[in-house]
Amino acid sequence: MVFNYHFGGIGITSEIPLTGLREAPADAAFAGAIHVAGGRGPTPVEERSHFVWPGRFGLRLGEAGGYWLVSVPWGAFLFDAAAERVRIFGLDGAGQTVLNDILVRRLLPRLVKLKGAATYHAASLARDGKGVLLMGQSGAGKSTMSIGLAGTGRWELLGDDMALLWHNAGDMIAPAGAEAGVWASSCEGLGLADSDYRPLSGYDGKHLYRQRGVRHATSAPAAGLFFLERAECAGPTAVRCTPAEAFRQALTQIIYFNPSGAAAEERLTSVQHLNAMLARIPAWTLTYPPSFAAVRDVSGVIEAALESL
Fold this sequence. Notes:
The protein is 23% helix and 35% strand. With 309 residues, the chain is an alpha+beta fold.
């Protein structure tokens, strides 16, 4: 049996069921394809190391047998340079659920870069055919704010952590996974029902939220970029940034497939794409109070900013 999903404008066919992805509509057209299968035999041994990401999952980027290899304590992912086929090793162990979540939330956002897309550390939403990006440093509230905006019923959640864009198609934001990470305290503060989320494997205290009533999210052209800043203030405000100011803030939010020094061409292309996008779309600094009740007011501020163009 083959399962069909979509992610970042790419069609995903899988020989194993995957959670956290959106089912692919029967008539959808995609910019490329990735086939996922379980690996056979022992887990490949890394022959060359490129990069180790910090964090609890211990992701390592390396090579084995002429293929890219991403290793984690629970198993590994082996794939070709064009990301046509991904084999997952370790699915027969206790870490099967963790491997699924790592594939969806950590690996696929990087694999779409091998297909020609751009990936940013940002939340993304759409409303009335227009997409917005929410950027900010860790702790700025991107995930919580994106889930809160989705909960107002006025926004469609495209992604909570990594935004996927096709700059060669008019800065189109493509939907990421179907779930968004959220802390337990935010679940309570936003008034989420127990049926709206599930525990995130390997990440104590965090859950995965799924927006109600959205089965097939669609791509939307980027209409604006908002840098989130949480501060003590009377209410949310949006102040327009110059392209230079926006570039300076967004530069650190580029996600690279290979962050090592050997990937100079990828870094150059990524920076050029960001600079060109910021010459086309406006950006604002959005300051808002640290209150869950501010979400609806933030929605109004974003809408007003876009309407003022």
